[in-house]
């Protein structure tokens, strides 16, 4: 069944239209990827879904409810969570503190501590570094941390912006193994931005190719593989 429906959405920054008439259909439990070069509008689409920016046109529905105009905190409470590009951790806070900061937005402290314990079972590397400051983690560990932090609000839809940026291929594999495990273990629905389709064609069910703010191609990974 359809969890997220983006219909004919455009987003402008001042006079510049960054995203034009974009439509997406994301099924419950699926993995979808938006592939496009830097500046194509990928981040803008994720921000529009997560409530960080308001479309100038179009509709967005989550679980059949209109969500345009709702605040990011409300959307987090409803089950949408964004992992922004850039691995923005709080460098002087510990791993533990970085995780708890996020959950205070929508949840009580006791619930958060339980969630964190359960969550960390999926993140053994972070568990080992629980009391270290986040600034001391490697790039891959910081990427794991921002993903874990986004999960503290118990999302059903996770939006992940360029998780592989600036990471070594082996580390990127680990990050993707983790994302796939999250879908298996928690039934998470994933919408991921990437600049190239190389890695994601292996497991993405639907791929949207974005260029200059418009979707140029949409298909199953298999269809796109045959096309290239
Ligand atoms: P991508 O994530 O694919 O790199 P973005 O969504 O970040 O693309 O950007 C799409 C276009 O919108 C780019 O031309 C970018 O410079 C512009 N843009 C992004 N954010 C802003 C902003 N806050 N203000 C003005 N222009 C922006
Ligand atoms: P991304 O591709 O993920 O958006 P960028 O490096 O393009 O990353 O953007 C980083 C930040 O700068 C974002 O907050 C974005 O909104 C903002 N930004 C990007 N392009 C512009 C622009 N042309 N004018 C103003 N802000 C911008």
From TrEMBL:
<dbReference type="InterPro" id="IPR052156">
    <property type="entry name" value="BCAA_Transport_ATP-bd_LivF"/>
</dbReference>
<feature type="domain" description="ABC transporter">
    <location>
        <begin position="4"/>
        <end position="228"/>
    </location>
</feature>
<protein>
    <submittedName>
        <fullName>ABC transporter ATP-binding protein</fullName>
    </submittedName>
</protein>
<dbReference type="GO" id="GO:0015658">
    <property type="term" value="F:branched-chain amino acid transmembrane transporter activity"/>
</dbReference>
<comment type="similarity">
    <text>Belongs to the ABC transporter superfamily.</text>
</comment>
<dbReference type="InterPro" id="IPR017871">
    <property type="entry name" value="ABC_transporter-like_CS"/>
</dbReference>
<dbReference type="Pfam" id="PF00005">
    <property type="entry name" value="ABC_tran"/>
</dbReference>
<keyword id="KW-0067">ATP-binding</keyword>
<keyword id="KW-0813">Transport</keyword>
<keyword id="KW-0547">Nucleotide-binding</keyword>
<dbReference type="InterPro" id="IPR003593">
    <property type="entry name" value="AAA+_ATPase"/>
</dbReference>
<dbReference type="InterPro" id="IPR027417">
    <property type="entry name" value="P-loop_NTPase"/>
</dbReference>
<dbReference type="InterPro" id="IPR003439">
    <property type="entry name" value="ABC_transporter-like_ATP-bd"/>
</dbReference>
<dbReference type="GO" id="GO:0005524">
    <property type="term" value="F:ATP binding"/>
</dbReference>
<dbReference type="GO" id="GO:0016887">
    <property type="term" value="F:ATP hydrolysis activity"/>
</dbReference>
<dbReference type="GO" id="GO:0015807">
    <property type="term" value="P:L-amino acid transport"/>
</dbReference>
<keyword id="KW-0029">Amino-acid transport</keyword>
